[in-house]
From TrEMBL:
Compartments (UniProt record): Cell membrane
Membrane topology, record value: Multi-pass membrane protein
Residues annotated as binding Mg(2+): 147, 207
Tree of life domain: Bacteria
Keyword Cell membrane attributed: yes
One Gene Ontology biological process: lipopolysaccharide biosynthetic process
GO CC terms of this entry: plasma membrane
UniProt keyword annotation of Metal-binding present: yes
Designated name of the protein: UDP-GlcNAc:undecaprenyl-phosphate GlcNAc-1-phosphate transferase
Cofactor: Mg(2+)
């Protein structure tokens, strides 16, 4: 019941805060104006991250946790939002933003949230001096993965909620109530924001909101899987598969086209779905469903690793291949798997 109370409280705080921030955004000109890469045609407030952070902090403070790790989320979250707001206003250079993200990555490390070793097939591999760069790489990767996928109303928020739900379920099974509580409070904050952010949106996440969600997801995934084994490392990767796959194929696509990997384009997963004729709302829902499949698979894998790993691996690889081929996500229009499936289906239809 207390968990439900925390969820409802953060949800209501978010619901109340957002109209105030929308008013402030318009009053001070803190809006995202239409452009060639934008899908909106009117100025939109972009202080979504501020609303989520404030409701999240209030929710956690009221819950009175005894673990000190929440301070790492607060401090890093505040710095991430400040960096994001500056970027939303002044459109800072990618290198400066990247350096800022690296510095923010040291915050959770200072509080002991770090990948220092991994257990692989019964052997323990210690990262030693590589522990810090490995941890920072993980944090920066998730921050940018969520930021990259934030291209349609409600998309990054919804995918983050689905990922948080999966982490919450697994941490409950682990008995890690603190991380579960953090996830539930953030889910409430995000759902309150999604009321105003789902298509047609009244407010955007902005870089400040997308990077905030990526930062908290990266940290809670590390906190939720402290006993790092090769298998446990797969859980957050599977849970966050949609934004990770999107950013990986964006890098591959840009490398093949001989352009900077940080150069923005309109070939992300959500762009490709719209190019194929899906509406704004339907594209978001399709990605929600794909993300839910990955999230459910991670829970199944946790419950039955001995029997589920091969089944889940086959399902995920097959699903990923279908999505990549259908959307031409990597820039390659060849569809060998889809063509094989069409051929099999056609032969079955023709057979008596």
């Amino acid at each position: 019941m207390y968990t439900i109370f925390l969820f409802l409280m953060s949800f209501l705080i978010s619901i109340i805060l957002i109209p105030i921030l929308i008013y402030i955004s318009h009053a001070f000109g803190l809006v995202d104006r239409p452009g060639t890469r934008k899908v909106h045609d009117v100025p939109m407030p972009f202080l979504g991250g501020v609303a989520i952070l404030l409701s999240f902090i209030l929710g956690v403070v009221i819950s009175r946790p005894i673990e000190v790790e929440y301070i790492a989320i607060f401090v890093g979250g505040i710095f991430v939002v400040i960096l994001g707001v500056i970027d939303d206003i002044f459109d800072i250079k990618p290198l400066i933003k990247f350096i800022g993200q690296i510095l923010i990555g040291f915050v959770p490390i200072y509080y002991g949230i770090i990948i220092d070793e991994i257990s692989l097939f019964g052997f323990s591999i210690e990262f030693g001096y590589l522990a810090i760069p490995v941890t920072i790489f993980w944090i920066i990767s998730i921050i940018n993965a969520i930021n990259f996928i934030d291209g349609l109303d409600g998309l990054a928020t919804g995918v983050s909620i689905i990922s948080l739900l999966a982490i919450a379920v697994i941490t409950v099974l682990q008995g890690n109530i603190f991380v579960m509580m953090i996830c539930v409070i953030l889910i409430g904050s995000c759902l309150g924001f999604l009321v105003y952010n789902f298509y047609p949106a009244k407010i955007f996440l902005g870089d400040n909101g997308a990077m905030l969600l990526g930062y908290i997801l990266s940290v809670v995934s590390l906190m939720g899987f402290k006993e790092v084994t090769f298998l446990s490392l797969l859980f957050p990767i599977i849970i966050l598969a949609v934004p990770i796959i999107d950013v990986l194929f964006a890098m591959i696509r840009r490398y093949k086209n001989r352009v900077s990997i940080v150069r923005a384009d309109k070939h992300h997963l959500h762009h490709r779905l719209q190019f194929l004729g899906h509406s704004h709302r339907r594209s978001v829902i399709i990605i929600y469903l794909i993300s839910s499949l990955y999230a459910i698979s991670s829970v199944v894998l946790y419950i039955s690793p001995e029997y589920g790993i091969i089944t889940v691996a086959v399902i995920l690889l097959f699903t990923t291949a279908i999505v990549v081929e259908y959307t031409s996500l990597g820039g390659n229009k060849k569809q060998p798997l889809l063509n094989l499936m069409r051929k099999i289906f056609r032969n079955n239809q023709e057979s008596p």
